[in-house]
Structure formats: C-alpha cells, structure tokens
Amino acid sequence: MQTKTVKTAQRITCGAVVGAANSLFGGGGGMIAVPMLAKTGMDNKRAHATAILLILPVSLLSFILYAVKGFYEPSVLIPTALGVTAGGLVGAKLLGKLPEKTVNLIFAALQLAAGAFLFFFH
Q1: Which pLDDT tens digit goes with each residue over 47-101?
Q2: What is the distance between the alpha carbons of residues 95 and 48, in angstroms, rounded to a whole number?
C-alpha cells in the first residue's frame, strides 16, 4: 500500500510530465495522464475523467504562450470547437456506459493509430 506522500509525489510527477507533453506537442497529454494516474491507484474510468480536467488549465496556458508568439490559426477555432464539444458530449456519455475493458481497448487502439500515423505519414 502506498503512503499518501508517495501518491502525492507520483501525482505531481504525473502532472509535470503531462504538462510538458501537452505543451510541447500541442496536445496528447491526456494519453500520458491516463496510464500515469492509473499507476497511482486510480481506477481507469476515473483516470480518464481526471485527465480531461488536468488538460484544461495546461492547454489554456500553452495556448496563451503560443498565441503571444503567433503560433495558432484562428480560422479553425469555431468549427473545431463545435466538433470538439459534440465529441466531448458523446465521449462523456459513453465513458459512463461502456465497460472499463472496452474503454481501455478503445484508448489503446487510438494510441496505436496516432503512433502509426506519426511514424508512417508525418
């Protein structure tokens, strides 16, 4: 059993890694947050939901830092935000209904697909 201090240290480390990855790659921190949070003893569904919460402030801060340097495209904001909002609603509803094993398999498949895309096509 882990002590509260060890869990806190693990979660601080998780936050630092997630923040760095999200800022460096423009997203994707959640893909690191979920397994790291699960390693601290959190169940996977809670880890998925918590990862979403973690990404909000780091994404906002990253955007501000990138925006100051002009590294963004404003024309995609509204259409993409509409899609992200719709997808987020569907995903949140599905997370509550799907078995944990199914959520994990979908998550792993998305990670593999993203990795394959970057490796072969980018």
Answers
A1: 888 888 888 888 888 889 888 999 888 899 899 999 989 998 999 899 889 998 9
A2: 8
Domain that holds residue 52: 4-121
Could you give the CA distance from residue 22 to residue 6 in angstroms, rounded to a whole number? Answer: 24
**Integer Cα distance of 10 and 57 in angstroms:** 19
SS3 88: helix
Report the predicted TM-score, pTM, of the whole model to 2 decimal places: 0.70
Look at residue 70 and give its three-state secondary structure: coil
Give the 3-state secondary structure of residue 28.
coil
If we measure between CA atoms, which residue out of 35, 74, 62, 70 comes closest to residue 51? Answer: 35
